[in-house]
Amino acid sequence: MQKPLLETLKGNPGDKVPFWFMRQAGRYLPEYKEVRATTKSFMEFCYSPDKAAEVTLQPIRRYNMDGAILFADILVVPDGLGQKVWFEAGHGPKLSAVSDEKSFSDLSMASFHDNVGPVYDTVARLKNALPADKTLLGFAGAPWTVATYMVEGAGSKDHGAARQMGYGNPGLFSRILDMLVDATSQYLSRQIEAGADAVQIFDSWAAALPEPAFDAWVIEPTKAIVDRVRADHPDTPIIGFPRLSGAQYERFVKETGVDAVSLDTGVPLDWAAKKLQPSVCVQGNIDPHLVVAGGAPMVDEANRVLESLKSGPHIFNLGHGFVPETPPENVGLLSETIKAFRR
Fold first, then answer.
1. Can you tell me the mean pLDDT for 236-258?
2. Is 182 in the active site?
3. What pLDDT does 120 receive?
4. How far apart (Å, rounded) are the C-alpha atoms in residues 22 and 26?
5. What is the pLDDT of residues 312-341, one digit of tens each?
6. Residue of 182, 173, 168 lying closest to 150 (CA atoms)
7. Is residue 328 helix, strand or coil?
C-alpha cells in the first residue's frame, strides 16, 4: 500500500496534502496524561517501549494523520553517551554540564547503542502496529541544539555557554560536535533499520547565529549526518528543521542535502514556494498558538498555508510543536480541514 506522506517526501505529491504535527503525542491529550502518570520520570517514559509506542499511536487513532513520529526526546543521545540527564518539574531538562576536557572525557560511544536500545525497540513495535498507509518518522536533535543543552547543563534563552565555548574553546566544542555527529548518524541509521520510513533532524535553536557560526555549527554537522545516513540508507528521506534561521534557510537546504525542510511559523510562504519548494519538499507551518485559539481564524490560516504551497511537494505541519494547553477538539477541526483540501 502506498504511503502518501512518504511519497510526498520523495517528490511525488498526490491531490491530497498529507499531514502530521510536531509534538502530536503529548500533554494536550488526556490519554497521554494517563500513560505518563504511570512512569516515575520522563527519561523512564522515553525508555519504556510499550508506553512510548502507545502514546505515539494515540494521535493516529484520534485524528488519522498520515505520519506517526516516534515518541522520545532529543536528550536521549547525550544520555546514551554517558551524560547524566534528568527532568525537573517546572524547570525542564537538567544535565551534568560538559564544560571542560574532564567532563568531555566522561562521554563515550562504548555503551551508546545498549543505552538507547529501548528506542529502537519502540520503533520496531510501531512498525508492526501502524496501518500500512502511515509513514513512521524517526528523529534526533541536531548537534548544535543538543550541544547547547550539554554545555549549559539546562535549556537557556541565548545559549550563551555553548556560544562562548564555540568561540573561546573551539577545539573542545568541535570535538563535542564531532561526537554528536557520530552518535546521531548511528542513532538515526539504527532507527531506520528498526523500521523508520523517514527521519527528521531538529535544530530547534538554530536562530540568530552569525553566518560563520551557522556554517560551522549548523550546516556542516547536519551535512555530515545527512551524508553518513544516506550512505547506508540512500532511499530514506531526511527532513531538516533549522528553526528560526531566516534567510539562512535557503543555504541550509542547498548545502546540507536534506530531502525536505520544516518551515517555522515566521517563514513567508510565497518566499518558501519560490526559493525552497522547487528543490525540496516543504513542511509546515501554522502557528501552534493559533491552534489553541481555534475556530475560523485557524481554519482560514490552514487554508492559506495549503493554497500557498499547493504547487509543489508539501506536508502540512506546525511551525513548532503543540503547546500543552491546545484543546484536542481544535486539533480535530484542523485535521478535518486539511483532509478536505485538494490541490
1. 97
2. no
3. 99
4. 10
5. 999 999 999 999 999 999 999 999 999 999
6. 173
7. helix
Place 257 in a pLDDT band, splitting at 50, 70 and 90: very high
Catalytic-role residue among 36, 62, 228, 251: 36
Taking alpha carbons only, the member of 152, 126, 139 closest to residue 184 is: 139
The DSSP code sequence of 145-166 is HHHHHHHHSB--SS-HHHHHHH
Query: Is pLDDT above 90 for 90?
Result: no
Instruction: State yes or no: is 23 an active-site residue.
Output: yes
| Residue reference for cell 565555548 | 165
CA distance 342 to 309: 12
Phi, psi dihedral angles at 298 (to 5 degrees): -65, -45
Question: Among residues 66, 73, 79, 259, which one is catalytic?
Answer: 73
Quickly tell me which residue has 487554508 as its cell.
Answer: 303
- Per residue in 213-224, pLDDT tens? 999 999 999 999
Instruction: Please tell me which residue in 28, 32, 120, 149 is annotated as part of the active site.
Output: 149
| CA-to-CA separations, 232 to 112, 141, 228, in angstroms, rounded | 19, 19, 7
**C-alpha cell of 188?**
538515526
- Residue 91's pLDDT is 82
pLDDT computed for residue 1 by the predictor: 87
Whether 27 sits among the annotated catalytic residues: the reply is: yes
Catalytic site includes residue 270? no
- Examine the residue annotation and report whether 228 is marked as an active-site residue of this protein: no
Q: Which three cell numbers stand for residue 328?
A: 484536542
Q: Residue 192 corresponds to which amino acid?
A: I
Please report which helix (H) or strand (E) contains residue 243, including its range.
none
